[in-house]
Amino acid sequence: MSTASQAALRVAILLCGLCNLPVHGDSLAPSAIISKQRITAKGREHIHGSVSGRRPRPTKEFVYVYDMPAKFTSDIKKLSMEWHPEQYDYDQVLHEHFLNSPARTEDAEQAQLFFIPVYLGRYYNWYWQQWSTPGNPWEIVTDCEPRHRAGSPECWWEKWMWGKGNTSELVREALEYVQKQHPYWSKHDGADHVMVFSYDHARCDMALTNQLSTFGQMFSIQSYGDLTLTNDPTVPPIIQRWQDNNYTWGQPRSWACFRPDADVLVPMYYNFEPQDLVSPFGSERSITALLRFDYKRGDGKNLVEHYGHRLRHELIEYWRGQPLEGSQQGPKSSEETDADMARSIFCVCPPGATQDTTRMFRAILKGCIPVTFFRANDLPFARFLGVPYGEFMLNIQPDDYPQLNDRISRILASPQRLRHMQDALVAYQKNFLWSGGSEDGGVIANVERELSIRATMLHDTPHSTFSR
Ligand SMILES: *[C@@H]1O[C@H](CO)[C@@H](O)[C@H](O)[C@H]1NC(C)=O
Ligand SMILES: CC(=O)N[C@H]1CO[C@H](CO)[C@@H](O)[C@@H]1O
Known about the structure:
By secondary structure, the protein is of the alpha/beta class. It has 3 domains: 3-51, no CATH class; 63-269 and 449-457, no CATH class; 274-432, Glycogen Phosphorylase B (Rossmann fold).
């Protein structure tokens, strides 16, 4: 099969969305999704056939959504969002979605998965920012201990850790509520339960001070897919050192933050609509490579100290020494950056607080090939749904960043290779749109597909995803 038709097949598989979920009211096991080969035109007919009225609308209900007390949801929506970036609000977005999704069942006895809505993203930011100066959330001036200067990193650290401690406490209370008020957790020690941890390092920010036993086997939906623990000392560690680490996994510590076999990865939230999407061929691309980021020197606050893990600094210095012809460097507003991404062939996406950043997903949606610097980092919908990032992304190992110009130039010199990458980008762009629902082939549809795979792994074990 030609690579083009292979790509087309993969697109068909991905865009198919939920069409292969169970179609009979009494058969809830979404096992068909495991076998990609079985996703055929016939499968699609099966679902769309129902629309013609010959069959009752297929049911695919398998997710039960807990009705949590207001303190975990609606009360949190009332908290100040003054400095709260909406990228962390996908806990709310997913909750609202699942309340209305065809995947939802209101019969807990029939459910295969249990969704626990808690709006941790808003809560976490509100918590530490309560003590900030107007206009600058990082400037903490109120209620500093006498030994801490107002605005000092020490005062900031204290509130930051209060944020972690109190958010962890909210998580613990939510799980206790579920375990006390409902009988379902104990059946599988929480393995069929899922919660959204929408901050940078997921559980390692939002549930840091909880004992592992609090979580049982529960999995999470999150954006943190880092698989590394230690790195080359010349580039500071991707994983930050935690002051209090109460996890006792007996495994690399980072596994407490991400379980590759269980957790569902998603991009951080952004509100792009289908009409905001730009094809790589849909506009003139006069910028060869866009380096639209800056590097702030350490000020003692953890997100900033190694922000971008120094790699940003190295890349800026590198660009100043030898700018690639037609490239641009320097920060601008996010609107200007989006517009420039739509005019660029390559978008350089260095790490932020974590290895990946929303910049990478914005680049994809703007038809710009992301250049990333991942050591080992799982990405959304790759492990289980097979999104082949390598086909439309250029990854350079962090220590090899001086090869940047050379690697980009080689692709620019091969129109065929560039065309192949851009074709693949077109084919997969839509997977990263948060707008749309179960049937639209975007993030939401992919999350539902991933959840159906988790349900199958838990309840219908003969076909392991790994054995195919
Ligand atoms: C929660 O925040 C309060 C301040 O509002 C602080 O005194 C307390 O130590 C924090 N709790 C934890 C567990 O960090
Ligand atoms: C082993 C252990 O329990 N370590 C710490 C867990 O977190 C609390 C609260 O931050 C600390 O007091 C413990 O020392």
